[in-house]
Each structure stands twice: as C-alpha cells, then as structure tokens.
C-alpha cells in the first residue's frame, strides 16, 4: 500500500514540476516575442532615470508576474499534496510564512548578483559571460561558508546533538575518515514535515552534519550511524568540492553558449545590444534549455557519488546491515518511489533508486559474509 502511495505521490509531483517548467517557459517566450518586454522596458524608462534602478524594476516586475503564475503550482505541490499524503505538519499560515521568508531571502541574495550581472553587461558586452561565471563561483563559495550559520537558522532551529552514544559512534567514524567534526546538529525538521533527512553542509569552519529530528526520533542508533557514515563518505571522497568544480565548469560553458546564442538572436529580433533590458528574458530561456540538456549528466555524476558514499557507509558502519534498513525506512517515511521508471531515474534523479541501493547493500553483505 505504501509503495503504491509513493508511486502516486512522486508521479503527481513530477507532472506538476514538468507542467510548471513548460508553462513558465512558454509564458516567458510569449512575453518576449509578443513585444510585452519592450513595452515594460519603455514604461520603466519613463518611471526612473537610473539604468540600474530601471533594470531592478524591470526584473522585479517580471519575476513578480512569473511568481504569481507559479504560485498555484507551488501551493498545490508544497501544501495541498503534502497534506493529502499526510506528510506535512504545517498550517496554511505557516506555509505562507515560510514561502514569504524564502522569497525575502532570495531577494536579499539575488539583488547583488543581479546588479553585478547588469554591470557586466553594460561595461563588458563581449566578455560579460566570463566575468559573470567568476562572480557566480565566488558567490557560491561565500554562500557555502555562510549559509549554515546565517541562512539555515532563519528556517530551522539548530541544536548540538546531545546523545552521547550517537556522538561516540560519529566521532569514531569521523576519526576513521579524517573528518574534523565542526559540529553535529539536530534541527527541527518536524515543524514542517514528517519526512526525514540528514546532510553534510558548509565549507571550511562552517562544515557540519545536520540531522533532522524526524530521523533521530524514528530510527535506531545503528540506522542513524549508517546514515551518518554515508555523509562522512561524501566528505572522504571530496564530493562537495568535485560537484563545485563540475558546477563551475558547467557555469562557464553555459554562459559561453548563452552569449553566443544571445548575440545572434538579439540582432535578428532587433534589440539594442546585449544590455537591452527587453532582451534579457531571452537569457533565461536559453539557460533553461541548457540546464535541461545537461541535467542528465549532472544527475549521473550525483548518482555515482551517492553509490560511493553508500559503499563507504557499508564498509565503515558498526552494523552495515542497518544501512539497507535505514534506506527502506527512509523511503517509507518520505514516500519515495523505490523503483521509478528508468527514464525518470536517468533524467530527474540525483540518487540511485532505493531498490538499486538496497540491492547493492545486500550484495556487499553477501560478499563480506563469504
């Protein structure tokens, strides 16, 4: 029964996500080729004189319209569907509050990036793509350092883990992996959801392991240790840094290709150069296509790293048989489809299917027992 529910849940989530992405793409395309971006540019020009304020007002109004369009999808997927499948602990007003908070954080983070982007377009029209890639890289490093301490606490309450038995187990794993523990934190995931999760976050001195209270309260010590070992495996194999390097390469290549196509298309459509605000939605369209095309490669790399972390957990947990149990329990608690369609897994999933992960664990236990 749970497996059928999981399939329905993830099938609906996928349909909503694809529908929202496709319709948003078409809406931006209509906004662009219908001449509405030119009308908005001209209207904004008559309101303020400063080019940067014109840019922010143009982008702000465009994003506000797109957000209003996407709101029904977000509400159905993030609130109605979660309650329908009895996964959410949020009231309607709590959901609204979290969405508003996320939007405000996005604005605070986004404005400096947007202004940097427009500055580069105005002053470096030929090489803006290169310098923007550099800015995005530096910003991602800064965010990786600051997010665990400044941004995450805006959404969750973090407390140092107090369970001495678990801490001793985790300290042993950290020592084996050469992992200097900056902290293991419990966070109140249950304020929003019944789902469970744990993660390795941060860079440098902000590096930490965070474990949801929903996982700590519903899993055995052996199962929690195996999940922690998986996260340590990510550190030992330097997956975070490798993914950052791949993401940086992907960013440079993406912006370079965007620059090539953008220059060709704006000349055909008659826009006034690369910094013409009316042409900027075109960059979003090209980037969305690029992201769609490279996402299978990104997901394949992520699945490879997850398999490495799984193997590390099996090799270093005190009770490796608990890892498969933890995976099955997580899939049930999170309503994860244990065996998605191969195409769905290939194109959309950054983790191998639960069935494949459990099968790998069983094969490892069989070999180690021989």
List the helices and strands and how they pair.
Layout: H1 2-33, H2 36-47, H3 51-84, H4 92-123, H5 128-151, E1 158-160, H6 164-176, E2 184-187, E3 198-201, E4 208-212, H7 213-216, H8 221-236, H9 239-269, H10 281-316, H11 321-333, H12 342-348, H13 354-369
Explain briefly what this protein structure is.
Helix content is 73%, strand content 4%. It is mostly helical.
Structure, described:
This protein has about 375 residues and is mainly α. The chain has a domain at about 1-155. The protein is about 75% helix and about 5% strand. The chain contains 13 helices and 4 strands. The protein has a 4-stranded mixed β-sheet with strand order 1-2-4-3. Helix 5 (about 130-150) packs across helix 9 (about 240-270), helix 8 (about 220-235) crosses helix 10 (about 280-315) and helix 8 packs across helix 11 (about 320-335). About 25% of the residues are buried. The mean pLDDT is about 90.
